[in-house]
Amino acid sequence: MTATTPVTAPATEPKRKQRFDEGTGRLAATLLSPTLLVLGVVVLFPIISALRESLFTSGQHLDANGFVVKGETFVGLQNYADIFRGETGTRFWNAFYNTTFFTVVCVVLETVLGVAMALIMHKAFKGRGIVRASILVPWAIPTVISALLWKWIFQADGVANALLGTQILWSTEGWQSKLSVVLADTWKTAPFIGLLVLAGLQTIPAEVYEAAKVDGANAWKTFTRITMPLVKPALLVAVLFRILDTLRIFDLPFVLVGPHKDSVETLSMLAYDEAFNTRFGPAAAYATVLFVYIALVAYLFVKILGADVIGEARAKKPGGGKGGGRWKRSNAVKASASAAVTVSAASGSGRNI
């Protein structure tokens, strides 16, 4: 009798399920690498170079033994410390105030006028195309050209003094130079906010306004309860862009009023003045401080007001990515319904729409 060994089937490895997104990460990295390379060259490299330059000083100077030393010398944070001391500190804080003043005043005026322009352009009336084109013309003009145009208007014998019947010297030191910059900047860039807000207005369904009208909501309640909440995402992005742009204001006051004017000198003009005089270390220090200031303002703006700049909210929702469009439509319907219910409650009818 012979013993038999049971024959066992060869063990097979469990079949690994293939993930749907397997390999897409590598493909995405491959496709994005040219863009990342370009961004590294035009963005990251200049930032690192500016940070390095701010730690050095260039030109000729005497060393401890009285010999002339040429070239770059490492000074650490000396350029940053010099910004806040003595006459340089006074000039810096004056430029910091001017930069902040222009940002706050110009952006507030541009937001109010931009929303008004968007509401006008959104209305259906005869000749709307001509009105839209005429409103957007200032935004299409280059900044330097518009600065020269307003410089001609604000001449001593220019249009502004002729209309006001005065002899104000607009390009001299004082409140008039600040006012001229605010007027010129508001005239030029308010259409930019109007254009972005108009894009937001065109996404609001007409049925929402019809429901509000049926419930007896007046124009003010319709504007505050429907228009502004639904157009808020586009408006916040437009305001953020304008804040970042105005914090870097340079060409308009430089051409319109001129350099070395305490009334309109900004941080960008300070950095330019240092670089123009071949003091590249202090110029890089000014530019770095301005960069940190802009980054801090942008961070606080996004955190406090919740501007959805890169569609982060949509990405966090179920159905993001390929289903983003479906989620967006669903969210738009919900927002419209919510606005309609709000208007219904505000109008006192108590009827849900």
From TrEMBL:
InterPro entries: MetI-like, MetI-like_sf. Keywords: Cell membrane, Membrane, Sugar transport, Transmembrane, Transmembrane helix, Transport. It is found in: Cell membrane. Residues 1-12 have a biased composition (Low complexity). It is a multi-pass membrane protein. CDD domains: TM_PBP2. Residues 96-301 form the ABC transmembrane type-1 domain. Its main location: membrane. GO terms for biological process: transmembrane transport. One of its GO terms (cellular component) is plasma membrane. The chain crosses the membrane at residues 27-48, 101-121, 133-153, 189-209, 230-250, 283-302. Belongs to the binding-protein-dependent transport system permease family. This is Multiple sugar transport system permease protein.
